[in-house]
Amino acid sequence: MLRALGISVIEPYSEHEHPQIFVTYVNAVTLDIKIEGRRVKIEWADDLRAHLDFDEDTRTLFLFKYPSICAPNLLQGGSRSIFDRLWDNYQLNVESVAQKSFAFYHEVLLSYRIVFG
């Protein structure tokens, strides 16, 4: 009925569309998971720049361990964050810096959603 009115309905994902993720080991520093049968170690990074870095040799994915820092910066509603001010010396267009930092914080939070469902 909703489709007849032009309203799209989100279909549930099938098991075959997305790989299964299984947690194999957890502690305060690392998390081992298996994605499609291949082991990936997740290591928590203190540095926001290291978020989503992947070391192919050790199969380690680095995630920023304080994603709660990103949420308030997204909710500021246009006011400039500390992250934006750090770029003042390197960028001339302040608005583009604010847009880039907003996109970066958004990406960090979305990546948590993708990795942890």
Describe what this molecule looks like in 3D:
This protein is 28% helix and 23% strand. The protein is an alpha+beta fold and 117 residues long. It has two domains: 1-65, no CATH class; 67-117, no CATH class. The protein has a five-stranded mixed β-sheet with strand order 1-2-3-5-4, with no helix packed on it. It is elongated. It starts with 20 loop residues before the first strand and ends with a helix.
Query: What is the rounded distance between the termini?
Result: 29 Å
Q: Output the structural class.
A: alpha+beta
Radius of gyration, whole Å: 18 Å
Strand order of the largest sheet: 1-2-3-5-4
Shape: elongated
How many discrete structural domains? 2
The ordered string of helix (H) and strand (E) elements is EEEEEHHH
Largest sheet: 5 strands, mixed
Fraction in helix: 25-40%
Low confidence ranges: none
Measured by DSSP, the beta-strand proportion falls in 15-25%
Mean pLDDT over the full residue set: 70
Number of strands: 5
Number of helices: 3
Secondary structure: elements and pairs:
Elements lengths: L20 E6 L3 E6 L2 E8 L8 E2 L4 E5 L5 H5 L7 H5 L7 H23 L1
Parallel strand pairs: 3-5
Antiparallel strand pairs: 1-2, 2-3, 4-5
Quick tags:
117 residues; alpha+beta; 2 domains; 23% strand; five-stranded mixed beta sheet; 3 helices; 28% helix
